[in-house]
Amino acid sequence: MNLNKKPIYRSTFVMLLLIFPIIIFGKLYQFKLLNGYAFGIINRIIEWLPTEIIPTDNSYAFPLQFYRVFSFLPFDTALEWAIFWAIVMNIIFFIILLKKYKTYTMQEYIFIYASMFILDVFVFNINKDLVQCLVLLLVFFAMNLKCSNRLKIFLAALILGIESIYFRSYYILGAATSIMVYFILSIFIKKDKKKKTSTILSIISVLILLFLMIFAAQYIAPEAYEQLIGRRDTIAEDLDANTVISDWLPGDGYSNYCINYIINMFRICFPLELLLKGIKYIPFVIYQIYLAINIIKSMRHINKKHLANLSFIIGYWLMMFASESDFGTLVRHQAILLPFYLDMIKDNIRYKESRKSNEKN
């Protein structure tokens, strides 16, 4: 990413400055209306910081070791850490957004503000998701290097693979699916005449290869297979029943898992069921459907410039279909991908504008 060569437009600078007041609204919402979101995890990490405790669970051990680097700071409460990390991360995202594109449309600004609000409330705290956000920022910078698409997607997969060893083990699935999607989309990228057919065929091809990969895992890595198959039920036991993504088809086994995977894929892309649980879920439903539609649109005009980015996004979603057990968890894991999504949305907007221009001519 050429951070120094693109001019900064004053209007873009001013509009992006508005993400900083969102910190105030986000933290007020978190600590007043939500009574301090996820205080259990946050307080546990704060309590462990001055000790020599090293949890056996990597999902806690890795973030704890990271935060101990900053233990010299004079912060003792969840609110102090939340404000500190919100300011730091907003500055990082501000610089990325400011340098990435010269201008944004109003549609993009609304998406940026909505995503930053989600991040301020749920992610920019002393928790596990902040560390995940930093890992994905490393992926974003790797994906914006001046190198081939193939090298970009391999670097992204490598980072997720390393993360799966030290932090969240199931991210190895995201590494594998990103590479798989990249090679499948590379095959269909030249089929421009029948875009709808190519889109459908590419989706079907991805799912078939994914299910074959999971089937092979039964024999190659049985422990990982059992963890993947039972992950949703294991996590769902501790989640809010109002937003839990429980499997509709009961029973264990490979065939049931594949059927539930397809069902949950549609439920996550279009979470209309949340509308039956209260109007407060309407913003999330709109946010999620907006992203799903943009991914589908992108698959209809795949180009080499954005191939690696789109492949990573789809690979990440394939992982979420298998691992996310709660719509609340899902939305914060979605917002973390803000820089990736903006590339995709910008590409869709430009494609639409070029089509209109060609039609006029």
Main β-sheet: number of strands, strand sense, barrel status? none
First and last CA, distance: 33 Å
- Contiguous uncertain segments of 5+ residues: none
Chain-averaged pLDDT: 87
Strand content: under 5%
Question: Could you characterize what this model shows?
Answer:
The chain has 361 residues and is an all-alpha fold. The protein is built from 16 helices and no strands. The model has no long low-confidence stretch (mean pLDDT 87).
Outline the fold blueprint.
Layout: H1 10-17, H2 21-33, H3 39-48, H4 58-68, H5 78-100, H6 106-123, H7 128-143, H8 149-166, H9 171-188, H10 195-220, H11 222-236, H12 254-269, H13 282-299, H14 307-323, H15 327-335, H16 338-360
Helix pairs in contact: 2-6, 6-16, 7-8, 8-9, 8-14, 9-10, 9-14, 10-11, 13-16
